[in-house]
């Protein structure tokens, strides 16, 4: 079956979810795709489709990064769902290094936790320019003052790592309520507010297309009938099928020819 062509009708932005383990990053990712699918702007992805590996489903945690796509009225987003568990920080860095902006997910009942701090630090170190905060599981906290306190803690933590804590948008909601389709302030309305904040606060990246092509390799696959397929975010330049490229790094430099370029299983 021939693949469809990726039609670029909106600006493209790379975004993703970061934060402490079990604070709801994958649930939020699934809720975004479900909410946008209802508007005809995404393909719905269930939680189990995002946490695909058997060991992820068994342990209930994200281990490797997962990629989904969705649109808003203004933009096309590629979204990386990063693991929060401390054992898989290398995989988190791989995901964060591709982001033009990040959604920091914080459980309102717990407040900032060790991997919250670590992920903010890593986002700063790999150069994520903007962060939007989703204060999750707000339905489990009855005291509004406690939510204000957690929000203040998050802002102070972001400021510690040289993010503008006072101006960063913080959206209160419940990813689970949104995933269940509850049309309330904490349910699907919180997803709409979150994506509006991303559209407004995360700037469209300037793509350096004039310089030579460079793409750090995120992962390598061997696909029957296609040969070797590499994935990653293009840092600069342009690449087209038929062009010769050079693989540099671990061993002797090696030349090869690009046979195809795809994004989300669609031809570019």
Q: State the name of the first-level CATH class of the largest domain.
A: Alpha Beta
- Helices and strands, in order, run as EHHHEEHEHEHEHHEEEEEE
The dominant shape is: globular
Q: From the 3D structure, determine the CATH topology of the largest domain.
A: Rossmann fold
Count up the helices: 8
Task: Draw up the topology in text.
Layout: E1 12-18, H1 25-37, H2 47-50, H3 54-59, E2 66-71, E3 76-81, H4 89-96, E4 102-107, H5 114-125, E5 131-136, H6 144-160, E6 170-172, H7 175-179, H8 188-201, E7 219-223, E8 227-231, E9 244-247, E10 254-257, E11 262-263, E12 266-267
Parallel strand pairs: 1-3, 1-4, 4-5, 5-6
Antiparallel strand pairs: 2-3, 7-8, 9-10, 11-12
Protein traits:
268 residues, alpha/beta, Rossmann fold, Elongation Factor Tu (Ef-tu), domain 3, 2 domains, six-stranded mixed β-sheet, two-stranded antiparallel ribbon, 8 helices, 21% strand, globular
Describe what is shown at a glance.
The chain is 29% helix and 21% strand. The chain contains eight helices and twelve strands. A hairpin with a 2-residue loop joins strand 11 (262-263) and strand 12.
Describe this structure in words.
This protein is of the alpha/beta class and 268 residues long. The model is unreliable at 52-63 and 84-88 (pLDDT under 50). It has two domains: 12-201, 3-Layer(aba) Sandwich (Rossmann fold); 219-267, Beta Barrel (Elongation Factor Tu (Ef-tu), domain 3). The strands form four sheets. A six-stranded mixed beta sheet has the order 2-3-1-4-5-6, with helices on both faces. A two-stranded antiparallel sheet has the order 7-8. It starts with 11 loop residues before the first strand and ends with a strand. Helix 1 (25-37) packs across helix 8. The protein has helices at 25-37, 47-50, 54-59, 89-96, 114-125, 144-160, 175-179, 188-201; strands at 12-18, 66-71, 76-81, 102-107, 131-136, 170-172, 219-223, 227-231, 244-247, 254-257, 262-263, 266-267. Strand 2 and strand 3 form a beta hairpin. It is built from eight helices and twelve strands.
């Amino acid at each position: 079956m021939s693949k469809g062509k990726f039609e670029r009708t909106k600006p493209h932005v790379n975004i993703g979810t970061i934060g402490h383990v079990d604070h709801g990053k994958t649930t939020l990712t699934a809720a975004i795709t479900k909410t946008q699918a209802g508007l005809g702007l995404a393909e719905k992805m269930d939680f189990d489709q995002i946490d695909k590996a058997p060991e992820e489903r068994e342990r209930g945690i994200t281990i490797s990064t997962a990629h989904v796509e969705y649109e808003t009225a203004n933009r096309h987003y590629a979204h990386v769902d990063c693991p929060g568990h401390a054992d898989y920080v290398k995989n988190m860095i791989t995901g964060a290094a591709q982001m033009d902006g990040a959604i920091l997910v914080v459980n309102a009942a717990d407040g900032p936790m060790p991997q919250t701090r670590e992920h903010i630090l890593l986002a700063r170190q790999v150069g994520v320019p903007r962060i939007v905060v989703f204060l999750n599981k707000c339905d489990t906290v009855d005291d509004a003052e406690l939510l204000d306190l957690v929000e203040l803690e998050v802002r102070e933590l972001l400021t510690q790592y040289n993010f503008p804590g006072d101006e960063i948008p913080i959206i209160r909601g419940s990813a689970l309520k949104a995933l269940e389709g509850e049309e309330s302030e904490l349910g699907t309305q919180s997803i709409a507010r979150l994506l509006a904040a991303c559209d407004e606060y995360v700037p469209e990246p300037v793509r350096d297309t004039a310089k030579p092509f460079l793409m750090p390799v995120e992962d390598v696959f061997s696909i029957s009938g296609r040969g070797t397929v590499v994935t990653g975010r293009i840092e600069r330049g342009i690449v087209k099928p038929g062009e010769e490229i050079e693989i540099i790094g671990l061993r002797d430099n090696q030349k090869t020819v690009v046979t195809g370029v795809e994004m989300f299983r669609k031809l570019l």
